[in-house]
UniProtKB/TrEMBL annotation:
S-adenosyl-L-methionine binds at L76, G108, F127, S128, K129, L130, T131, F132. Specifically methylates the pseudouridine at position 1915 (m3Psi1915) in 23S rRNA. Its EC number is 2.1.1.177. InterPro entries: Alpha/beta_knot_MTases, RlmH-like, tRNA_m1G_MTases_N. It comes from Clostridium oceanicum. It catalyses: pseudouridine(1915) in 23S rRNA + S-adenosyl-L-methionine = N(3)-methylpseudouridine(1915) in 23S rRNA + S-adenosyl-L-homocysteine + H(+). Gene3D superfamilies: 3.40.1280.10. Keywords: Cytoplasm, Methyltransferase, rRNA processing, S-adenosyl-L-methionine, Transferase. This is Ribosomal RNA large subunit methyltransferase H.
Length: 159
């Protein structure tokens, strides 16, 4: 299985880079992982709604350039479906069973995802109604993907 994570924004903190490296290493047992880090657009402190829509559109266009037609796209969105780790593992497993072995997870910038990206997605997933720093969220996503593969393979995992 091929897993791609497209994320807007740069990881600056060393401890987060180390965590991403650790989960990337763990995931190599289960899948081929590709992380695409895209630059975020700077949002002015007093940006208007119009400014924010323009920023989301620019980021969205950049994201879409990295998505191929044959990829199953899971958008991380506050309005997406909130599920358990076990249910998440079923989503991943069902992708593999139905021939969708190229899965792309999309993490937007600080303003969220543009409607064009949400429209392209096959599944919208919410981890929580809470807001997380995007850099930390990348680690959380990789941990949950790793947990999914552990569940799918009947291996122990922390409940």
């Amino acid at each position: 299985m091929n897993i791609t994570v497209i994320a807007v924004g740069k990881i600056k903190e060393k401890y987060l880079k180390l965590a991403i490296d650790e989960y990337s290493k763990r995931l190599s047992k289960y899948c081929k992982l590709n992380i695409i880090q895209l630059p975020d657009e700077k949002t002015p402190d007093k940006s208007s709604l119009k400014d924010e829509l323009i920023i989301k559109e620019k980021e969205g266009n950049l994201i879409l350039k990295h998505i191929k037609d044959n990829q199953f796209v899971i958008a991380l969105d506050l309005k997406g479906k909130s599920i358990t780790s076990e249910e998440f593992s079923k989503v991943i497993e069902n992708c593999a069973i139905s021939g969708n072995s190229n899965i792309v997870f999309v993490i937007g910038g600080s303003l969220g995802l543009n409607n064009s990206v949400l429209s392209r997605s096959n599944y919208k997933l919410s981890f929580s109604k809470l807001t997380f720093p995007h850099q930390l969220f990348r680690v959380m996503l990789l941990e949950q993907i790793y947990r999914c593969f552990r569940i799918i393979n009947g291996e122990p995992y922390h409940k």
